[in-house]
Amino acid sequence: MEADLVKRAGVPFEAVDAAGVHGVGLRALPGNLARLSRGYLQARRILDRFRPDALFFTGGYVAVPVALAARTRPGRKPPVILYVPDIEPGLALKTLARFADHIALTTSESQAYFPRRKGQALSVTGYPTRPELTAWDYHQACRTLGVSEDLPVLLVVGGSTGAQSINRALWQVLHRLLARAQVIHLTGRLDWPQVDKVRSRLDASLSSRYIAHPYLHSEQMGAAFTAATVVLSRAGASSLGEYPLFGLPAILVPYPYAWRYQQVNAQFLAERGAAVIVQDADLPERLLDTALDLLHNPQRCEQMRQAMRSLALPDAARSIAGIIQDLALRNGLQGGSL
After folding, report:
1. Host H or E run for residue 230
2. pLDDT given at position 335
3. Shared-domain flag, residues 267 and 224
4. What is the pTM for the complete model shown?
5. Domain containing 62: what range?
6. Which helix (H) or strand (E) holds 121?
7. Are residues 78 and 192 located together in one domain of the fold?
8. Could you give the CA distance from residue 291 to residue 269 in angstroms, rounded to a whole number?
9. Quick count: other Cβ atoms within 10 Å of Cβ 37?
10. Are 81 and 55 in contact (CB under 8 A)?
11. With pLDDT > 90 as the criterion, what percentage of the chain qualifies?
C-alpha cells in the first residue's frame, strides 16, 4: 500500500527486506533475522548509491537495517532524525533513538519515553498533515461527496485495508443509524465486495444516506473530514493530527492486537475531552447509542470540537522539514540528494 502511494506521488521508491523480531515466536525468528540481514546488505547498496545528506525515520522494523547500514558505513555519517507518530514509541524507534541527532514528537507526552542524551535534541512538532486536506469548504465538500447539509454525518474510517470489526458493527445497526443520520463509510479494500449486499438490504429512502468508498486519496479525504460531524475510527497516529486539524469529535476504537499504542493515543484525546473511547469487543452493543448521542447533541459536539482543535499544530510538516534541512546543511551537503 505504501509503495503504491509513494510511487503515485512521483517519489522514487526503494524496497528493503525487513521483519519484526519482538514477539514473533521462536519458529519465525530465524527467518526474520535472515530477512533483516538481507535488508542490511540492500540498505548498504542503496546508501552507497544515493549518498544521503540526512536520514529520516518514522518507525517500523524496516528502519533498523537502514540505520545500522548507515552507522557502519565508512566516512562521514549523515545525521539521523526520528519522528515519533504515536505517543508511545515502538521498539524500532526506541532502538533507533540511541543513534538519533534529533527526535521530533507529535505531543509532549512522548518525552517521557526518551531519556535525554548528550548532543541529542527533542522537539514537539505535532503530526504532519497534507496541505490539500484543508482545501475544502463545507458546502463544496458536501456536494462532492453527495451528502445533505440537513442531517448530521458520521464518517467511518477503517484504514487502507479496512477494520473488519468496525465494518461489521456498523452494518449491524446501519438501518437504524441512517434513520437519523448520514454515513460516509470508508470500508477498506478487503470488505468492499460486501457493500452491494449491504446496500441492497436498505430501504430505498435510506440508501442515498449511505455513501461508501473502499478508500479515498488525500485530495478527497479532506472533503470527508470537512463534511463530517463525528468520526468513528481506530486510534492510529493520524488521529492525533488529522482530527485536531479539523476539530473533529471522535469515537475511537483502539485496535486490540497491536500492543497498546492505539489505546495510549485514544486516552490522550479522551482525557482532553476530544474523543470517546469504545473498546473493540464492546462496539456492536455501543456503536449506535454512542454515535447518535454525539450526532444529535450539538452542545457536546461543539465542546469536543473545541477541545480537539486546541490540540492542532498545523505547521508540523514544515517544522519537521526544517529540522531535516537544518541538520543536513549543518553536516555539510555531500553532493547527494536531500
Report:
1. strand 230-233
2. 47
3. yes
4. 0.90
5. 2-126+315-331
6. strand 121-124
7. no
8. 17
9. 12
10. yes
11. 69
